[in-house]
Structure formats: structure tokens, C-alpha cells
């Protein structure tokens, strides 16, 4: 007989409870370890996210500071563009950019304003400046250095070096919106070259605004006439277009490369005088403008003043009064004074008339032979630097360099060099055969043609004496006297103006070959 062991129920219950408690404890430990692991992983994820967020915040903060630095650099570069050589490095002979700016001795520093070639020289570090950058100290204490990038193609007219700028106009670019003409530059931070900003600099230096008012053209061959520019905004170029402007048009606007450009850059600041009227129109169109018209030139140069009432567009009641007022004041042919009797030209002519009466035997030829009378002649007394800057006539060339880009001889509206110097061509929609301002260095300082409103006709077929005619005078004797004075071979104005012959060095005289006339021009802009 087999005897089976008997297990008590109390012992079984204890072992069962022990195993259950063990499993529960083990499960709790596993859950606890899992929770700790999950918490560690979550903490690591939070730390990683925090690092990413901090990185993003730092990047945003850096981008904000870089953007602020770039934005703060823009007015600095705009100021440099608009004011040019404000430290007068040119006056101290410290500008050294022969490929960009080979400069004549008598040059006003206004030439450097809104001049992209000066910007190229400046940011190359050769304009007398030691540090051609903008420095910005960030809030974190970091120094940021901002400067334009030389990333634009080199141009054959200048040098093989990359350019700091390019020229945009509506005639050569599909970018929109852009001004009629602008200089495009790309700014970058030296410490973070991946951050860049493109800017457009608009030319605000070379034109003047003609206020809304009533204007009158002078007494031409068909008499005075009046007009107003109500609701039209007219901007007129302060200077005649220069050869530098024409080179820029050729390089950036597919301009006419058949135009004769002086080989020496010293003459690029001079008025461009080798263009045909068709080429003049094309250049002005490149700048978003058109060729200056004769009556606009009269309005911008004749000194006049209207009453406050008449400055507004007149009603039918006060229009006649306003026109009469304008007619009375539009009689002064010299723009630098309000009354012609205060002008040195008028005083000179009066002195010469008195001299004629004193020496009747010298009446003929006295105007050209005063120097043979006495060393201190009447004309010599009037050839001061100030007078010659206002009216650069034939005699002035014997004493002074031509004042290139001079701000002297300014009209009431801000046009420069409006008498003397180079003859100037206009489009004349009213009187087509009065299209040439004849006051110039071809004439004596006492010539009656050295005045506003004196016009001749250029037939546009060439630049020889035979292409210039007078239609503003019905007096044939007066016309012949003018022609003789203007083209006198014995007193060839080119002989004294060595700087006009582009193939001659300083001090050398022009050849005695055929005399050609050098005619400049300006542009204007209409907006409505």
C-alpha cells in the first residue's frame, strides 16, 4: 500500500501568494525602469529640442542684427553716392583711379556726386579712403563689416577688374519695378558672407525741378510767347551730358559704339560734343528721358519772379496780369543777377561803347584789338576768375582752364554753365530753326551773342562752319559780323583751348586744320 504525502492548504496558499507578490514586484520594477528610461529619453529629447530652439533663436537674433547692420549701411552708402568726395581727397591729390577717374585740373567736386565710377574707386580703396566699409557693432558685442561685393562683370572701357555695381534702366533690364535709371549693388557682411542684400541707388544729383508756374520764352524772331506746366513735373539735367555718361551708355545700354570717345579719360568729364542729334535722343532715352527742348531751357534759365497769386495756375481774370508780369521780368539776359545793368557783361559793353566814342578812328576792329592799345585794357579788367566761371568766353581760355562741372553760372532753377563754354543743341518744337544756344568760347566776352535767348540754326548735317546759320536776325550785316567773329581763322578759339583737342597734351595747341564746332546737349524728364 502506497502512502501519498499530504500538503497542507496553508502552505500552498503561502507559496501562491509569494509567487504572486514576486511577479507584482518584478512587474513594478520593470515599469519603474521603463518609466525612468522614458523620462531620460524625454529629457534628452527636451534638451535636444531646447538646443535646436536656442540655435534657431541665435540664428534669428544674428539675422536680425545682420539685417539691421545692412539696413544701417544703406544710408551710409547712399550718402557716399549722393555727396561723393566729402573729405576733399581730390583737392589733396589723393584719388588714384586712372582706369575710372583720370581728372583734369579744373574740376568741381560736384563731378563725384551720383557718379558710379567714383563708387568703384572708393570701394576699391583708392579714393583717399583707408577703410571703404561700414562697421556695425552688434548688441552681442560682435563687430560686423559691411561692404559691396565686386561680383558684376568687368567692362572693357574701364579695367579687367570685376565691378562693384551694374547699371539698370528700363531699356536694358526686365527687372520690375525699377526706376528709369539706377545703380545696383550687392552688400555683404564680411564675417557672414552668406548674408547679402541688393540695393538700388537712384540718381538724385543731376537734375533740377522746374516748379509749376507760368513761363515765357524770350523775344525770338517771332516774338515772346507764354505757357504753363500745370500738372506736369519737369526735371532738367543740371549739366550737359559728359563723355563719361556716353561711355556708360555704350557699356550698359548697348549704345552706339561708333561715337568718337576721347582716348584720354581726362576728357571724359567734359561735355560730349561728338554726337549726332539721333545719338543724343538715344542716350536720353537710355536714361528714361528725352532731349531738352528750347522753351524748357528758357524757363529754367531766365531769371523771373511772379507774385504769389500768379504762381498758382491763373484764372481767366488774373491770367493777363500774370503774363504781363512775367513779360516785364523776362528781360534779363544774364542769369546770375536780377537786373542786366548789374552784370559785368553789360558794364563791359558800356565801357567799350565809351571807348569807341573816345577813339572813333579805332571803331572798326577795336573789339578784337584792345590788347594792342594798352596792357591794362578794358577787357582784361573783366577777365576775373569769377566772371570767366559765369561766362567762359574766348579770352578766358588764355588765363584759365575750362571749369569742368563747375557750379558757377547757375540759373535760378539750378542749371549750371548756361552761358559761354560749349554751344548747346536743343529740340525746338516751336521754332525749328532756332535750335542752337550760340553763347560759347568761340565768341569774345563782349559779344552781343553772349546772352540768353540768342539762337542759331544747326542743320545737323555736320559740324563745320557751313552747318551753322543765323535765323534770329534779319540784318544781313549783323549776321556777317557774327559769322566773321565766330569763325575768325586768325583767332581760332581752339588754339587757346588745348584741352578741347583730345589728341593733344597739356600745353600743346590745336592744329590749324579745319575748324569743327563742338556741340553739347542736355536731357529732361516729364512725369504726370
Describe the model.
The chain is of the alpha+beta class. Helix content is 31%, strand content 13%. It has twelve helices and 16 strands. The protein has helices at residues 9-83, 116-123, 243-252, 277-286, 294-301, 308-311, 319-329, 344-358, 378-381, 385-390, 476-486, 493-496; strands spanning 134-137, 143-148, 166-169, 181-189, 192-202, 207-210, 214-217, 225-228, 233-237, 290-291, 424-425, 436-437, 455-458, 468-469, 520-521, 523-527. Strands 1, 2, 3, 4 and 5 form a five-stranded antiparallel β-sheet that branches. Strand 1 and strand 2 (143-148) form a beta hairpin. The radius of gyration is 38 Å and the shape is elongated. The chain starts with 8 loop residues before the first helix and ends with a strand. Residues 313-317, 362-372 and 489-514 have low confidence and may be disordered.
Can I get a quick summary?
This protein has helices spanning 9-83, 116-123, 243-252, 277-286, 294-301, 308-311, 319-329, 344-358, 378-381, 385-390, 476-486, 493-496; strands at residues 134-137, 143-148, 166-169, 181-189, 192-202, 207-210, 214-217, 225-228, 233-237, 290-291, 424-425, 436-437, 455-458, 468-469, 520-521, 523-527. The protein has 528 residues and is an alpha+beta fold.
Amino acid at each position: 500500500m502506497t502512502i501519498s504525502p499530504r500538503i497542507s492548504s496553508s502552505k500552498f496558499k503561502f507559496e501562491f501568494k509569494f509567487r504572486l507578490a514576486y511577479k507584482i514586484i518584478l512587474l513594478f520594477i520593470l515599469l519603474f525602469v521603463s518609466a525612468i528610461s522614458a523620462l531620460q529619453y524625454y529629457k534628452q529629447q527636451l534638451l535636444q529640442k531646447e538646443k535646436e530652439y536656442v540655435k534657431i533663436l541665435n540664428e534669428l537674433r544674428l539675422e536680425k542684427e545682420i539685417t539691421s547692420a545692412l539696413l544701417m549701411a544703406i544710408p551710409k552708402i547712399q550718402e557716399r553716392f549722393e555727396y561723393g568726395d566729402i573729405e576733399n581727397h581730390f583737392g589733396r591729390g589723393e584719388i588714384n583711379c586712372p582706369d575710372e577717374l583720370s581728372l583734369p585740373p579744373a574740376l568741381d567736386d560736384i563731378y563725384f556726386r551720383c557718379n558710379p565710377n567714383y563708387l568703384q574707386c572708393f570701394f576699391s580703396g583708392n579714393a583717399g579712403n583707408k577703410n571703404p566699409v561700414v562697421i556695425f557693432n552688434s548688441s552681442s558685442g560682435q563687430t560686423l563689416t559691411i561692404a559691396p561685393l565686386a561680383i558684376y562683370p568687368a567692362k572693357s572701357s574701364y579695367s579687367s577688374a570685376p565691378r562693384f555695381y551694374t547699371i539698370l534702366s528700363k531699356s536694358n533690364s526686365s527687372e520690375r519695378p525699377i526706376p528709369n535709371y539706377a545703380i545696383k549693388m550687392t552688400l555683404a557682411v564680411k564675417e557672414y558672407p552668406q548674408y547679402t542684400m541688393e540695393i538700388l541707388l537712384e540718381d538724385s544729383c543731376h537734375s533740377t525741378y522746374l516748379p509749376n508756374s507760368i513761363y515765357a520764352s524770350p523775344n525770338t524772331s517771332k516774338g515772346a510767347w507764354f505757357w504753363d506746366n500745370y500738372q506736369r513735373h519737369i526735371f532738367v539735367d543740371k549739366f550737359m551730358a559728359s563723355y563719361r555718361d556716353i561711355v556708360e551708355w555704350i557699356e550698359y545700354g548697348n549704345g552706339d559704339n561708333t561715337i568718337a570717345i576721347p582716348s584720354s579719360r581726362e576728357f571724359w568729364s567734359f561735355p560730349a560734343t561728338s554726337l549726332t542729334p539721333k545719338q543724343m535722343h538715344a542716350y536720353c532715352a537710355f536714361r528714361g528721358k528725352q532731349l531738352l527742348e528750347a522753351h524748357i531751357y528758357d524757363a529754367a534759365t531766365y531769371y523771373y519772379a511772379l507774385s504769389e497769386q500768379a504762381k498758382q495756375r491763373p484764372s481767366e481774370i488774373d491770367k493777363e496780369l500774370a503774363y504781363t508780369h512775367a513779360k516785364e521780368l523776362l528781360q534779363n539776359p544774364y542769369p546770375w543777377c536780377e537786373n542786366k545793368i548789374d552784370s559785368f557783361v553789360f558794364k563791359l559793353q558800356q565801357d567799350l561803347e565809351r571807348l569807341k566814342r573816345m577813339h572813333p578812328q579805332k571803331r572798326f576792329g577795336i573789339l578784337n584789338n584792345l590788347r594792342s592799345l594798352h596792357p591794362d585794357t578794358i577787357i582784361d579788367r573783366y577777365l576775373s576768375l569769377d566772371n570767366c566761371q559765369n561766362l567762359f568766353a574766348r579770352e578766358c581760355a588764355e588765363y584759365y582752364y575750362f571749369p569742368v562741372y563747375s557750379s558757377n553760372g547757375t540759373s535760378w532753377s539750378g542749371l549750371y554753365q548756361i552761358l559761354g563754354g560749349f554751344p548747346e543743341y536743343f529740340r525746338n518744337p516751336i521754332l525749328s530753326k532756332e535750335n542752337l544756344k550760340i553763347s560759347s568760347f568761340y565768341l569774345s566776352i563782349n559779344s552781343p551773342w553772349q546772352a540768353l535767348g540768342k539762337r542759331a540754326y544747326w542743320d545737323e548735317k555736320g559740324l563745320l562752319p557751313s552747318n551753322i546759320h543765323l535765323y534770329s536776325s534779319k540784318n544781313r550785316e549783323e549776321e556777317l559780323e557774327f559769322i566773321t567773329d565766330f569763325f575768325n581763322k586768325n583767332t581760332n578759339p581752339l588754339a587757346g583751348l588745348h584741352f578741347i583737342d583730345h589728341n593733344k597734351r597739356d600745353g600743346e595747341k590745336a592744329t590749324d586744320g579745319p575748324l569743327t564746332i563742338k556741340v553739347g546737349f542736355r536731357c529732361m524728364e516729364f512725369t504726370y
